[in-house]
Write a structure and sequence with these properties.
Number of domains: 1
Strand content: 15-25%
Protein name: NurA domain-containing protein
Structural class: alpha+beta
Distance between the termini: 52 Å
InterPro entries: NurA_domain
Radius of gyration: 22 Å
Number of helices: 9
Pfam family, one: NurA
Largest sheet: 12 strands, mixed
Helix content: 25-40%
Shape: elongated
């Protein structure tokens, strides 16, 4: 059995032996650049006939085991470069915390042994330096072999190390239950370079194929997948449901008006869909779960549920779970909150230690990403 590590001890070693020395060293080596790629297809095909588009979900208690996985990441922008940290947490309906990484005293550990901390220097590095300042917990290189540098955005570095941790953690979850991922089943990874994005996606697809894994998207105020998929059916849809999807800019506003125009209290959980979507040559089935937070109050949890199979049992399983007041399944909320707390704690330790050593923090604004 691997020796259990204490996070404060591990971080002290990383800060003193890796971060400070790496970020303060420099030589001549030109970084490469590559165009970013994003998600191209923003629509899908409605699989069900219109008269089956809205379905009542079975609210029967479901005793099957469900795991939930979520990752978190943050960055410290300093005068010498970027320090990005990530964490991942798995919870379940039986045990609130199934495992965490990096290791935290008092929590069961996910034995991943993958980098949870990435260094991006503000100076060019020689080919040898990454090997001098590297460990199983720290990385200075991207998956394509290029150095992380301050030319990379913090979001790009965070996305890469966080998504890798999430995928590795998914492999550690037993096959005796369903798995909920916080976010899309196949993430768009819009911040990553094309080669890195392809590698990360291949790892994710290998981990989810043949398993009962679903992705949950909680924020739909910017999503247009549903209304885009219904665009060609707008006339028939309006005739049947008295609402035109072409009039809306987001799935969330469309769904809420659809409920108002076609349903009345007492409200029951319903699903919309499914929609078949092709992402990187992989078919993904999308349903929308509308979960009333109260039978007689017009307030709902709206979740986009993604799966590799056209199986309504995923929606049934979700609707059987207990939801928070914010409209999130408790098992997912626990993983989400714990991952954020771990990442914040790690970053606070790193920042405090580095600033005490004289490494100056830099002002950072999201506007920098649009070259303003």
């Amino acid at each position: 059995m691997a020796k259990k590590l204490e996070l404060p001890v591990l971080l002290k070693d990383i800060i003193s032996n890796y971060i400070v020395n790496y970020l303060t060293s420099s030589s001549s080596m030109s970084p490469g650049a590559e165009n970013l790629v994003g998600e191209n297809d923003n629509s899908g095909i409605l699989v069900s006939p219109l008269n089956e588009f809205i379905k009542v979900v079975s609210a029967e208690s479901n005793q099957s085991l469900i795991y939930s996985l979520d990752g978190s990441s943050r960055s410290f922008i300093s005068s010498k470069g970027i320090i990005s940290v990530a964490s991942v947490v798995v919870s379940s309906t039986i045990s609130p915390i199934f495992g965490v990484y990096p290791p935290i005293s008092g929590f069961p550990e996910l034995d991943l042994r993958k980098p949870f901390l990435a260094l991006a220097s503000s100076a060019h590095q020689s080919p040898l330096l990454p090997f001098f300042y590297s460990s199983e917990y720290v990385t200075t290189l991207s998956l394509d072999g290029s150095f992380f540098t301050s030319v990379n955005s913090p979001e790009e570095i965070e996305t890469e190390i966080r998504t890798i941790l999430e995928t590795e953690a998914l492999k550690k979850i037993p096959n005796d239950g369903s798995v909920i991922l916080d976010g899309p089943l196949i993430p768009p990874l819009i911040f990553l370079r094309s080669k890195v994005r392809d590698d990360v996606l291949n790892f994710r697809l290998e981990a989810i194929r043949g398993r009962n894994v679903i992705g949950i998207v909680k924020r739909l105020d910017k999503s247009r997948l549903l209304i885009s998929s219904l665009y060609k059916l707008s006339s028939k849809f309006m005739e049947k449901f008295r609402i035109d999807p072409r009039r809306y800019f987001s799935d969330e506003s469309f769904i809420l008006d659809l409920i108002k125009a076609n349903l009345s209290p007492p409200y029951s959980p319903i699903s919309l869909g499914p929609i078949l979507r092709n992402i990187d040559n992989t078919p993904v089935y999308v349903n929308y779960l509308i979960y009333p937070l109260h039978p007689y109050v017009y307030k709902f949890a709206i979740l986009r549920v993604e799966s590799l199979s056209n199986d309504s049992r995923a929606i049934d399983q979700l609707s059987s779970l207990k939801f928070t007041k914010d409209g999130i399944p408790f098992v997912l909320a626990i993983a989400d909150r714990t991952a954020k707390e771990i990442t914040n704690a790690i970053l606070k330790i790193v920042m405090t230690s580095l600033e005490s050593m004289g490494l100056q923090a830099s002002f950072y604004s999201k506007l920098e990403q649009v070259r303003i």
